[in-house]
UniProtKB/TrEMBL annotation:
Residues 105-130 are annotated as: Disordered. This is MmyB-like transcription regulator ligand binding domain-containing protein. Residues 22-114 form the MmyB-like transcription regulator ligand binding domain. It holds the Pfam family MLTR_LBD.
Length: 130
């Protein structure tokens, strides 16, 4: 939530971690469901207020009263070393628990599949600039 809606420090030279798109709308809809499941939970209320103060469109989306949860799609992840990655994502809900497991996959041989390999190489000290 903070990575999507937080205003970057002045001079940071970047917007929030993810562009304000359907990802943000789905995140707000999911937060609304979580808030309904845990009414009066201080940490959730604090997060909602923090996001409202941060701006970046949260208040506008919160006012729509949309409920929902995301079970899959694509995820845009900008990365300074390997460029933008757009893997497919699936959310697996664990029955009878408030746990979700998010998986990311990409078609072999595509830039989205090669990005994690380049990140591993960077961690080992190889030059992987885009």
């Amino acid at each position: 939530m903070r990575a999507v809606f937080a205003t970057p420090p002045s001079g940071a030279g970047r917007a929030s971690l993810f562009p304000f798109t359907a990802d943000g709308a789905a995140l707000v809809a999911d937060l609304r469901l979580t808030r309904a499941a845990y009414p009066g939970e201080k940490e959730i209320e604090d997060l909602v207020e923090e996001a409202r103060r941060a701006g970046a469109g949260f208040g506008e989306l919160w006012a729509t009263a949309t409920l929902g949860t995301r079970l899959g799609g694509t995820k845009r992840v900008p990365h300074p070393l390997v460029g933008e990655l757009v893997p497919d994502s699936d959310v697996l809900k664990v029955p009878d628990h408030d746990m979700r497991i998010m998986t990311f996959t990409a078609e072999p041989g595509t830039p989205d599949a090669e990005g994690p390999d380049r990140l591993r190489a960077a961690a080992e000290g190889a030059d992987v600039s885009v």
